[in-house]
Amino acid sequence: MAGQPTSSKPQVIAPKGLGPFFWPYTLLLTVISLVIAGGILFANLDWLLPGWSNPVTDRAGDVDNLFKFMGVFGAWIFIYVAGYVVYFAVVFRRRADEPANSIGVQVHDSPNLEFWWTYVPIVLLIGLVVMSTYIWGKIFFPTEAPGLTMEVVGHQFDFEYRYPGVATSLYSPKDEMHLPVGVPVRVLLSSADVLHQFWVPEFRVKLATVPGLVQDMNFTPLRTGTFDIACSEYCGVAHSKMQGKVVVESQADFNKWLSALKGHSALQGTVSLAKGDPAAGKTVFAAKCAACHAVGPFDQKVVGPGLKGLTDDAAHPNLVTGKAPTPDNIAAILENGYAGPIGNMPNEQANGLSSTDVANLVAYLVSLK
Amino acid sequence: MEASTSTHADHGAHDHIHPPPEGFIRKYVFSLDHKVIGFQYFFVGLLLMVIAGSFAELIRIQLMDPKGTFMSFSTYNVMFTMHGTAMVWLVTIPLVTGAIGNFVMPLQIGARDVAFPWLNMISFWLVPLSAITLFSTFLVGAPDAGWTEYPPVSLQQGVGGALWCLAIILVGVSSTLTGMNFTVTVAKMRAPGMTWTRIPLFTWATFSTALINMIATVALSAALLALFLEHAFNVPFFDSTRGGAAVLYQHMFWFYSHPAVYIFILPAFGVISEVLPTFARKPIFGYKMIAFSGLAIAILGFAVWAHHMFPSGLAPWLQIPFMILTYAIGIPTGIKLFSWLATLWGGRIHFTTPMLYCLAFLITFTFGGVTGIFLASVPADLHEHGSYFVVAHFHYVVAGGALLGFLAGVVYWYPKATGRMMSERLGKLSFWLFFVGFNLTFLPMHWLGLEGMPRRYASYEYFAKAFPDSVFWNQFETISSFLMVAAVAIFAFNILWSLRNGVPAGNNPWGARTLEWMIDSPPPYYNFKKIPTVLARPYDFADPLPYLNLDHDVDPYPAPTEAALQPARARA
Amino acid sequence: MATTTLTGHAAVEARYNDVDPVYAETRDMRLLGFVLVLFSDCILFSSFIFAYLYLRTSAPVWPPFVDGHQLPRLDTAFAAVNSVVLFGSGVTMHFALENWKNLKKGAFNMWMILTIILGIAFLGGQAHEYLSAQMTWQGSAFGASFFTLTGMHGFHVFVGVVYLTVLLVQANRGVYTGSKYFGLTAGTLYWHFVDVIWVLLFYLFYLW
Predict the structure, then answer these.
(1) Interface contact C197, partner B, CB < 8 A
(2) Is there a domain that residue B432 lies in?
(3) Which of C60, C68, C70 shows the shortest C-beta gap to A301?
(4) Residues of A with CB below 8 A from C61's CB?
(5) Residue B2: is its pLDDT beyond 70?
(6) Which residues of A are less than 8 Å from C68 in CB distance?
(7) Is the CB of residue C77 less than 8 Å away from at least one CB of chain A?
(8) Hey, which chains touch B, using 3+ CB pairs under 8 Å?
């Protein structure tokens, strides 16, 4: 079987035109693509992407429009490519009675064809880029100010929900995250230990909780209901058990729920700042503040600024409406929290500080020269 | 680059034929021959594929039940970690570069071996060494944070995590050396007359892959070295309480791991570009575009890594450039796809097993590419990231792309490597089992992911409450996956059975035109007694073969032989 | 090819080309291979430099704080002297190779030994820098980046010192000739590479 020079010149067997029934077949592929496109654009795909026919959040509708565009685009590409693979394989198959040295049309290129199949996809992809960027802008640079700002902290293996004015945190799965319908919400995400991901599929929102970083997520829920939250970044052995639920309810119901929580954490009277104990304050600092603040100059940021020399260092900006950081003003920030250009700090109730804690903390912070 | 024909034939370094290797150890264990090394990579890679595939089957069995009681959660997590790690670094890369790259490329360029045979041997032996290191972690607590091993969670593992880093650094050295070796081989050892635009497309693909291997793998070694230092010496690269950053690891890791997927796929693209012309009996359409788009993909591939990090803590303004570049890579890929389609048009197609693999590749790889378009868009990715949609996408492009291309190459070059044809009947059977099994296993993952099923979940109980159908689909996927097991078993049997019982192949059973088909099957240890001269590209079937000074007299118009046109018959 | 009538640079070139073509091709390939290995070594350093840049630019203050105190900046003056030592060894290495090419074996030996001594001196300087550093490897991103990057570099210098010593021994055993000295070329390239990396590291840690 070693190649014996038989030297019979090969025979070219060429098709007539582009091939038998090429254009009718192309029409068939077009019709199939149109049917699939129609399905993607007009059918109810709630079974595939829950909320398809009735978006749960403002961005869900936008993201689903992206899916529609990509679905139609992708379906066309796939139907044509797979369709022509099958057609060419059938139509240009070697027949059993052909000589062994039959060959096909010896064509090397076609500048015309290459032009179209390079530039048409470029145009389509530019369209996708533009649409994606527009929706990305709406997601990451919202124009409306949030009506509710809250925090979600990832832990191994639950989500912690922190609301403004609520002393104790809520924890999944025992507790649910509540949101008022129709109100733009800003969720600040961080992690206490490893990477997690906060995903609510029906909202079409997902963002990682990263230790040492605060990411913010903005959206507006549009209808009421209960929706699943799942952790979608491997975070340890019980990753598959890290889920929660988010309940979207009317504003009236939400306010009722929130006050019921707040009501449990009323301050137990006030304590004079003069009675604050720096040593006790140091313990509170380590437990409640050290995760976000270091004992150092203002620039030594962990999540929030460094807290050394608050009363002495002129470099500390005057945070409380332009006033210098006196003990009373420091106490005010601890009590009321802070939301401004340099970030967000939860108030005393969110941080679980009693007024004794506040007094002790002030004494400690003032002692840090 | 152009070597003058007359003086080169007199003085070339590759004109020097060294004496044959003596003794079993020299011939088969510590061999310097690229062909033997190719075999070694092949058999080790296949063995590791069976091991890693078994881990996958254990995963699939667990997923039959949403409660996930078949294995403990920590065992399950170890299974997907070791499956991914082994498949990426110990199976795919060694097989596509070390096995077929090593065996075929020097033959295609008319060389007697690669540029640095000693380094080639070391590159091979690092693979079993790395595998032993990796699997030794089962004794001390195997890593469980996925093949990506993100800190901080991966730092919570014990010494298994540190050993994982070492194992992958070892195989990374193997890859880097191979990349350098192949780059120098293609650049410096081509036969006289083989200009850059006459190089066969598998060699072009191997060259582009070698560039990536050489440049990207070291970045992986750096990422894993940093992770190892944090494991072993508590050095805070990724610990945010001491000034490190978890996201930093992702940048360092993905800077390599995205180009890595082009290491998987480019050699498979190269195989397609050889097999289609041979079995359609016409030139590859758009040779230059295919060659240069491979280079473009290799280069652009370095610029898209952060598309794996869209939800992870990337500054938002960075997401858009990475999205745009990711879409841009679709263009050269599309050019290749359409050129391959045009290669089929007007051909005389032979439905041999390699051709079937190629046709299947065109379908499944396109599908995987389309789902890639879904993933590249930032807002859509924020829904799909970390879900089964991603798992579906990468299995379609890696198993439905790189693996199918690789299998096509194995069946295509098996006659050259062994002198025998593989059984066509068994070949077609294993092909169909694999193609059907693969699609049935991975297609449902697309909709499960879009519905909201997260990946790396040992138990999907909560999801099954909302989507009870998911239990059916997971069970469906598991049953279907056993079709792939059967396919691999039959394929492996075919490989071994045909060594003794395959129809003798002759030098050129497929009627192909690249240089490797001009010499004996299997080739002598020195490949070419006389280094041939190349006059033109090899893909013009209407022209006589464009070579001078071949070792044998060959038919200037090679056609597929009887051995290729009939299914192989078993020996009595 | 007669070299007796040529002198200087022309003679060097003539000797370089007066080799059998088999060796010439091998040398060509080895040179390309070696350069590519050095290039991938660049990528190794670049990855860690990227890590340092990332950590430094995302830190709110630099040098960072450890245990409430800001870490001091590094001693630029001492490192500058040590850098001069290293760059000096690059110059001496250059002369060593030039002398070899011009068949001046005695001078080659002298410059080579000087290079090795300067390399060892640099390593000594780095040891002093490490012992007197105020930060620890584990304490902060500063220590992590500094010790890892300069440690990798120092390891490369150490390997280089060993390599150059081996080359010196080989040269004196007659392994290399006036025409065939690829090992010496590779050694010189490696040593210059180590110098170039140090320029970058010196700027990044001491000047910036």
Answers:
(1) no
(2) yes
(3) C60
(4) 297, 299-301
(5) no
(6) 294-296, 308
(7) no
(8) A, C
Q: How many domains does chain B have?
A: 1
Residue B572 counted as domain residue: no
Contact list in C for residue B306 (CB cut-off 8 A) is: none
C7: number of Cβ within 10 Å: 10
Determine the angle formed by the axes of helices B117-140 and B73-85, rounding to 10 degrees.
Answer: 180
Residues 6+ apart with CB under 8 A from B512: B274, B278, B558
Q: With contact defined as beta carbons under 8 Å apart, do A223 and A181 qualify?
A: yes
CATH superfamily for A273-367 is Cytochrome c-like domain (1.10.760.10)
**Strand duo C65-66 + B547-548: pairing:** unpaired
Question: Which ipTM score applies to this complex?
Answer: 0.94
Identify whether the C-beta of residue B334 lies closer than 8 Å to the C-beta of residue B297.
no
Structural contact between residues B268 and B361, judged by C-beta atoms closer than 8 angstroms: yes
Residues of C in contact with B115 (CB under 8 A): 29, 33
Residues of chain A neighbouring C65 (CB-CB closer than 8 A): 294, 296, 300, 306
**pLDDT digits over B477-501, tens only?**
999 999 999 999 999 999 999 999 9
Rounded CA gap, B63 and A153, in Å?
Answer: 29
8 Å CB contact of A295 and C60: no
Taking contacts as CB-CB distances below 8 angstroms, the residues of chain B near C137 are: 233, 235
Candidates C32, C37, C40, C138, partner chain B, best to mutate (most B CBs within 10 A): C40
The nearest CA of chain A is from the CA of B122 a distance in Å of 35
The answer to whether residue A104 scores a pLDDT higher than 60 is yes
Residue B124 lies in a domain: yes
What is the average per-residue pLDDT within C179-192? 96
Could you identify the residue written with the tokens 């490519």? A81
Contact assignment for B243 to C36 by CB distance below 8 Å:
no
Q: Does C70 touch chain A (CB under 8 A)?
A: yes
B176 and chain C: CB distance < 8 Å anywhere? yes
Q: To 10 degrees, what angle do helices A22-42 and A58-91 make? A: 160
pLDDT band at A303 (very low <50, low <70, confident <90, very high): confident
Assign A200 to helix, strand or coil. strand
Cα B415 from Cα B519, distance rounded (Å): 12
What CATH topology corresponds to A148-263?
Answer: Immunoglobulin-like (2.60.40)
Domain boundaries, chain A: 11-140, 148-263, 273-367
DSSP 3-state of A281: helix
Of A48, A140, A233, the CB nearest to B316: A140
At B570 the pLDDT is: 39
**Domain of B437: which CATH number?**
1.20.210.10
Nearest to A2 among B455, B460, B506 (CB): B506
Q: CA of C69: how far to CAs of A112, A297, B34, B386, in Å? A: 69, 10, 59, 41
B234 and C138: CB-CB below 8 Å?
yes
The residue with tokens 């550093």 is C133
Does the pLDDT value for residue B411 go beyond 60? yes
Q: For strand A243-249 and strand A177-180, is the pairing parallel, antiparallel, or unpaired?
A: parallel
| CB contact (8 A) between residue B252 and residue C29 | no
The domain C16-207 having CATH identifier 3.40.190.290: the answer here is no
Per-residue pLDDT, averaged over B399-422, amounts to 97
What's the pTM?
0.90
Q: How confident is the model at residue A332 (pLDDT cuts 50, 70, 90)?
A: confident
Interface membership of C155 toward B (CB under 8 Å): no
Range of the domain at B160: 5-565
Q: Which CATH architecture has domain A11-140?
A: Orthogonal Bundle (1.10)
Q: C26 touching A, CB under 8 A?
A: no
Q: How far is CA A126 from CA A120, B379, C3, in A?
A: 10, 16, 65
Q: For chain A, say whether B313 makes contact (Cβ under 8 Å).
A: yes
